[in-house]
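Quick one: structure for this chain?
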Amino acid sequence: MNRFDELKNLVMSLEADFTKFYEKNNQTAGTRIRKGMQDLKTLAQEIRVQVQDVKNKEEA
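Got it. Here's what it folds into:
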């Protein structure tokens, strides 16, 4: 569950930047959002691989 908490924390950390970007048109917040979304993508892929590894071990 630790990885899930990491995922939630990363998403929640972007909330303020989403508000700044979409409501206040803050372009710098957009840059932080793009970086955060790339980090989110990387973390999601790591979790996906980890889940697949656990699944494969259980099937073996």
